[in-house]
Design a protein that fits this description.
heterodimer; A: mainly alpha; Methane Monooxygenase Hydroxylase, Chain G, domain 1; flat; B: mainly alpha; Four Helix Bundle (Hemerythrin (Met), subunit A)
């Protein structure tokens, strides 16, 4: 039995948002010219010539950023109920959440000192 | 105000069909990048099912953690791997596929018998306050220690990940050995110079 409120608006937004790319693809399929040479097959029809293939090996530095992002993403999940219930929780919960954040600031400082956030 | 019963049913059916189609695409498609993106689609459909089960916090966590973090990590891992290679065909292909199919069908039969045999208890009591507020109250009263321990766990995970990704722990001899193995996903830093710097 579904009893969450406000989700009919969510459903409406979801339907409208998912129809936007479908409609734009259909419109461009109808409107685009039928002719065209090999340039239409390139990645960017106007703009820079792409150099090399798209399937290249990316740098490991991107992975470091992703790892740091994941840690703070999970932190967000834990802090979200605290933020929602903030007015009903009181001062003690505020201090406890500060401890939680302080431990993760240690992680941030560690990543910073180890150069995981640098783009050298 | 609630969603109508029909709307719920249609949403459930659509989500289920989309999820099964995306999961089949994950398994069957050749391009591994398509599989990774379709895996994100599976996770999104799963969060929709969580919403239909009144678990809005779980749905939000599903999108944040699985689509936002885990799927991004999978995509990054794919992008870190070298170019697409043509793999050698394996011998005894039919034997391997048959064994896999056997295991999968057995697992499916086991799970479906379990689902059918379990007497599901339907709790009809309606929680009036928001589930997120309830979870927040539990976090800061009786589940406080696991909450703080989660922070320590995240700290440990981050330190371990940075140490592994920086490859500081590798002694000199092993580091020189990896010079010829250029197809490894994690190459030493000095080798990832001009080619992959984009």
């Amino acid at each position: 039995m579904f009893h969450l409120s406000g989700y009919e608006y969510f459903l409406g937004f979801l339907l409208i948002a998912s129809s936007v790319p479908i409609l734009s693809l259909i419109a461009s399929k109808i409107l685009r010219p039928r002719t065209g040479g090999p340039e239409r097959r390139t990645t960017y029809e106007c703009g820079m010539e792409p150099i090399g293939g798209a399937w290249i090996q990316f740098n490991i530095r991107y992975y470091m950023f992703a790892l740091v992002f994941v840690v703070f993403d999970v932190e967000t999940v834990f802090l979200y109920p605290w933020a929602v219930a903030f007015s009903q929780l009181g001062l003690l919960a505020f201090i406890e959440a500060l401890i939680f954040i302080a431990i993760l600031v240690v992680a941030l400082v560690y990543a910073w000192r180890k150069g995981a956030l640098e783009w050298s | 105000m609630n969603l109508a019963e029909d709307v719920q049913l249609i949403s459930f059916g659509l989500l289920g069909v989309l999820m099964i189609a995306a999961a089949l695409g994950v398994v069957l498609l050749d391009q591994i990048v398509y599989s990774a993106f379709l895996l994100g689609g599976v996770f999104l459909c799963m969060s929709g099912l969580y919403v239909l089960l009144n678990a809005d916090f779980v749905a939000a966590a599903q999108i944040l953690v699985y689509v936002g973090a885990v799927n991004v990590l999978i995509l990054f891992a794919i992008m870190l791997v070298n170019k697409q290679e043509t793999f050698k065909p394996v011998g005894n292909r039919w034997l391997r596929q048959g064994a896999t199919a056997l295991v999968c069908v057995g697992l499916f039969a086991l799970l479906s018998t379990m689902v059918l045999a379990t007497p599901w208890v339907v709790d009809t009591t309606v929680v009036l306050t928001s589930t997120v507020v309830q979870i927040g109250k539990h976090f800061f009263s009786d589940y406080l220690l696991p909450f703080e321990l989660a922070s320590v766990l995240l700290l440990m995970a981050m330190v371990g990940a940075i140490i592994l990704a920086r490859r500081d722990f590798i002694p000199e001899k092993m580091a020189t050995d990896t010079q010829d193995a250029l197809t490894l996903p994690e190459r030493p830093r000095e080798l990832t110079g001009t080619v992959s710097d984009r």
